[in-house]
Amino acid sequence: MRLLLLTAVTMTAFAANSVLNRAGVAVAGMDPLDFGVVRLVSGALALAAIVIWQRRGFALGGLGRVTAVAGLLAYIFGFSVAYRGLDAGLGALLLFGVVQITMFGGALVAREQVPAARWIGAAVAMAGLVWLLWPSDEVSVPMGAALAMMVAGAGWGVYSLQGRFEGDATQATAMNFILAAPVALVAWLILGESGPMPTTGIALAVVSGVVTSGLGYALWYAVLPSLGATRAGVAQLSVPVIAMAGGMAFLAEPVTWRFVGAAVLVIVGVLISMRRA
């Protein structure tokens, strides 16, 4: 029960990231790349302060750290690029579909046991997500943006897979952010658009970076060793559902029967998958 509760809190933090991102970009008018960089840098500063305060020390972590940092950067920049040209629902389907493939693939490579119930739960939850997010109207699919979202999904899958091997979740997350932040800043200087950032957008990005990303990702790394790759993968299918519910609660987005039915399907699938083997 404790693991289920911590997983639910983590998924809520991920969903809050989505709501904050939509509010910062769509409502406050902040550029998606600017939002991602401010989010990453603010998270790095906050996590560094926590590590110093708790006297955990800063450990590079070898090849595993390189893998995690590369995955984190691929996710943040892939998502930022894709956000500019891809339908939101279709983008989420691509993102979470690739996350599933990456994490189930990682589990099979590592010879993790994947019981039949988990495959069934994943299929049920994914079907609910397709029902929820599939565009009702015909939309164009820019190949560049679609590829960027797939890179983001693979990056997040790799980042999550690496979390299974981390002994100190807070320190590992801090080092991932601290090492990724300078790379993100350089990329932002090269690719970013000049011009002032909206104050509201900056504030939302900082909250996202410090609370729902920094602390949320640390909690994610804390629960990953107990969840394993496949349960962790399926659990993330609940994030778009929670994010949409948050949009309905805080951004006045309408509640539909399609959402209710699809949300029930996703949650049932996740609960089936969360059962121990």
TrEMBL record:
PANTHER family for this protein: AMINO-ACID METABOLITE EFFLUX PUMP-RELATED (PTHR32322:SF9), INNER MEMBRANE TRANSPORTER (PTHR32322)
Species per Swiss-Prot/TrEMBL record: Shimia isoporae
Domain EamA: start-end pairs: 145-274
Protein's recorded name: EamA-like transporter family protein
UniProt topology in membrane: Multi-pass membrane protein
A single cellular component GO annotation: membrane
Keywords per UniProt: Membrane, Signal, Transmembrane, Transmembrane helix
InterPro entries: AA-Vitamin_Transporters, EamA_dom, EmrE-like
Transmembrane regions: 32-53, 65-83, 89-109, 116-134, 140-161, 173-191, 197-220, 232-251, 257-274
First and last residue of the signal peptide: 1-15
Subcellular location: Membrane
